[in-house]
Amino acid sequence: MKNIFRILALVCIITGLLSIYAFYIKYGEVPAHLIWESPEVKPSIMSVGYKIYGNPKIDNGHFYLSKIQFKNTGEHSVTDFQISYKVDDYTPDWSEPEVHKEIPAGYSFNALYYPRFQDKIAKLRNSVTTTFRARAKWKEEGKEFEEVFSKDISIQAINTLVCSDIPEKERVIFQDNFNTAAFSMSMVTPNDPVVTAYSSQITKLAGGTTAGISGGRTEVIRICKYIYEYMILTKLRYVGDSATLNTFGDVKTLTQNVRLPRDVIIDNQGLCLELSLLWASILEHIGVRCTVVFIPGHAFVVAYAPNDGVPFDYGLAIETTAITPQAVGEKEIVSFEKATEISSKIYNKYSATGEMMRFDVQTYQNYGFTPPELSDYDITKLVDMLSQRLPHQSDQSELRHQNIESNNSKNDSGYNTNESNNKQDEAPYNPNNQSSVNPNEQQNNTVSPNQTSNNDDELIAYISPDNKFSISHYKEWDVESLSDIGLKLSHGPIFIMISPMRGASSGAQILNLIANQFANNYRNFTRIEQAQFNIPNNRLAYNSKFRGINKLNQQIHLSIIGVDGVGSDGYAIIISTPEKDYISSRDDVNEMLKTLIFR
């Protein structure tokens, strides 16, 4: 019995000792405790790149608006953490919270904010100051906490570029002074209807289509010469200006007001960077790859065609300011060959020193450096303005004789300019051939073109009765309204029909619907090509080309395009061309489709 009591006494002593030990261990623990460093917020952002700030995939997430580092310094977990953000007046409301159900003891993390700005930020014509806000909520030992951070930030006007967001003391190499220069790629606007109309005028001067450039370096030289000539003919001018030094928080950097290509076209003048961005927009629009090159105090472009055997290293460097002779120290008109020679020497010089930044437009726009939403513009008025800028035909011929004829020389870029006329009679290949027209028999009231002209140099605009879209051409087409909404255009045996699809917003769905209808009415109806591409106003289009025999036993080329709706119904475009007219008409039809604008 005594042994039993002894055992029980020993158990009690051990239990007591364990309880005392547990008490002291518990008493000595540090409860959960969340701390944070002062929020890092970009003091200034560029409205032209508002889509970039909202995309964490660009440049490894470098262009976040804010970064806050949180750390749990306690020995218990912080729970139910969430943080959300807003930018007063420019984001719809507080963002969807970033949630961490548990933050373990000793754990730290960065909370990064990539804002989804409203489109209205792209309409800023002056810089504004607004407030960034962050709101964090969490629990420590079951007790709820909340903290709100706020900081004023500056949003630059749509045409303002800030050269760097790196503090001056942290910059080491030339590129650090211009680490945000890639934002200028958002100012390259190949799908802007204003650029489309401008490019169409160049196409007319060049004597045919320039879409889908093929023919390698010879064809690239040829079309670049015509772009250069057109700018001289219309008296586009280089105007000098300098950047200004500004301070945003602890960042002292250069800023520069840079007009979008459409504004350069309308004003008919531009800085070196503005002219380079206009060139890039035109080249990308007509299917020529290009790179914008930055060197200290200057910018120019390099045109190349990798798919046609012209890599960047053998591209055509173009001094865009040479359209104004004084800009390059000359008194008379500077030939295209001279302009490429000047820029080639500059390129070689700064390539050797390393003080150069090159931005391949297509690559950067694929990364996400895409243009902002642009406002509508009266294209009919623009076309009239551009037509008035052209001199008389005799003056054009004289300038062309001076400036376009080959100098039988080879410039420093590696392009043999003596090749430039070898293929002038060959029609450039168009990878997105959208030729053909419409055997659909919807025909109602005959209407007249919205603009008529006896001058082949002027575009004729055809506008739908509901004013929702327009299309232009240098040749006059017969036009019919379709139920007071769509248009059917005909030029001899060629037809084009454009019509809204009620209740259908998907271009792919529209294409399949129309294709199935035609498949029931054509024999040997075969798909021969298909593609996806963007058309003006950033609408996505799906195109399939077919060949078949209609009820009249005629072999027909048929192109069916389904156009995505943007907050509205989509559109169907049906183009039909007889087999015998397909080759001769496809470039003409392609050029016409490039002027199609949805309002």
Write the layout of secondary structure elements.
Blueprint: H1 2-27, E1 34-36, E2 40-41, E3 44-46, H2 50-53, E4 66-72, E5 78-87, E6 98-103, E7 108-113, E8 128-140, E9 143-156, E10 160-162, H3 193-206, H4 216-233, E11 237-238, E12 244-248, E13 251-257, H5 261-267, E14 269-270, H6 272-286, E15 289-295, E16 298-304, E17 316-318, H7 336-353, E18 357-360, H8 361-367, H9 379-389, H10 393-403, E19 446-447, E20 460-463, E21 469-473, E22 478-482, E23 486-491, E24 494-501, H11 507-519, E25 523-535, E26 539-549, E27 555-563, E28 570-578, H12 582-593, E29 597-598
Parallel strand pairs: 3-9, 11-14
Antiparallel strand pairs: 1-4, 2-4, 4-7, 5-6, 5-8, 8-9, 10-13, 12-13, 15-16, 15-18, 16-17, 19-22, 20-21, 21-29, 22-23, 23-24, 24-28, 25-26, 26-27, 27-28
Helix pairs in contact: 3-4, 3-6, 3-9, 5-6
The average pLDDT score comes to 81
Write down the domain tally. 3
Shape: globular
Question: What is the CA-atom radius of gyration, in angstroms?
Answer: 32 Å
The largest sheet, given as strand count, sense and whether it forms a barrel, is:
8 strands, antiparallel
Which blocks of ≥5 consecutive residues have pLDDT under 50?
398-456
Secondary-structure-derived class: alpha+beta
End-to-end Cα distance: 102 Å
| β-strand amount | 25-35%
Share in helix: 25-40%
Number of strands: 29
Strand order of the largest sheet: 19-22-23-24-28-27-26-25
The count of helical stretches stands at: 12
Quick recap of the structure?
The chain is of the alpha+beta class and 599 residues long.
Features:
Protein Transport Mog1p, Chain A, 599 residues, eight-stranded antiparallel β-sheet, single chain, five-stranded mixed β-sheet, alpha+beta, Immunoglobulin-like
